[in-house]
Amino acid sequence: MSQIIILDSSQVPNQPSGNFTVNYPQPIKLRGAGDWEIALIRADLVNSFFNITATTNTNKMTYSPNSGVTVRVVTIPDGTYNIIDIERVLHDFMLTQVSGLDFDLVGGEPVFHIFLTPNFNTLRLEIVIDDADFEFDLTTGVNGDINRLFGHPSIKYTGVGTNVGTELVNITDDIFSILINVSIATDSWNNAQNKGALFSFVPSVPPGSAITLTVPKPIYTRIKRGDREVRNITVTITDQTATKIIDFNGEQVVLFCHVRPRQMLEFR
């Protein structure tokens, strides 16, 4: 009596793969008098969600090479970045500006004066300025909100010095794990809220890589009692709070779920 249900975002047009609904012209009938339950047994997706985007207002850095006379705004393309990547974007931008102002040439090699240095012992970001004329502006508003990813307050740094973040680096933008939720599941609690979570994971592959999740010991959760005829299922893939929907940027999601009559728990 058990069934396999495949939920494939590529078969559902004009819906994001992090939040899509599959409709069944012929309802899936869960027969019998007792309850049914569902578990995730496999998921295929891609590590394609971004931590730097224009939408979240985290894609801009502002600096001045001459004490505020000239202000440069660096726009970071939407994507997935670590601190070293972001520093590279900053330095690459400086190279497109004025030699002798935004950077120096020493022995034919560029020398920069602002550095983003992650401290892996304290988990804080050190913003280093080694030229008194340079400023690095992290005040929120026009300059965006990248300071919250850096763990720094809304502030403009001026003068020579090492500026240490007051908070831990939050480069994942508050996404610490991924929840796979389906609308017909119940009895899955996220703190005080009854959610339809089937599985949680932390991506362990580099950005752009395929994620294949195989669940060796599926955990079953009860299907809502009113869903004896399943006419649709909504898949929502979120952060750990179940409030922020993950944007896979056009990459598809396929879930394989096992549905069966509810089993009695056996304690040994």
Description of the molecule:
This protein is mostly beta strands. It folds into two domains: 3-49 and 175-261, Jelly Rolls (Sandwich), CATH 2.60.120; 60-164, no CATH class. Helix content is 7%, strand content 40%. The protein is built from two helices and 20 strands. The protein has helices at residues 83-95, 146-150, and strands spanning 3-8, 19-29, 36-46, 60-64, 72-75, 104-106, 109-111, 114-119, 124-129, 135-137, 156-158, 161-164, 178-182, 188-190, 193-195, 197-201, 210-214, 221-222, 229-239, 254-261. The strands form six sheets. Strands 1, 3, 17, 18 and 20 form a five-stranded antiparallel beta sheet that branches. A four-stranded antiparallel beta sheet has the order 2-19-13-16, with no helix packed on it.
Alpha carbon gyration radius:
24 Å
Flag low-confidence runs. none
Instruction: Write down the overall mean pLDDT.
Output: 93
Strand content: 35-45%
Q: How many E strands?
A: 20
Q: Estimate nothing, just give the exact number of structural domains.
A: 2
Morphology call: elongated
**Which class best fits the helix and strand makeup?**
mainly beta
Named CATH topology of the largest domain:
Jelly Rolls
Largest sheet: 5 strands, antiparallel
- The N- to C-terminal Cα distance equals 26 Å
CATH architecture of the largest domain: Sandwich
Number of helices: 2
**From N to C, what is the helix and strand string?**
EEEEEHEEEEEHEEEEEEEEEE
CATH class of the largest domain: Mainly Beta
Helix proportion range: under 10%
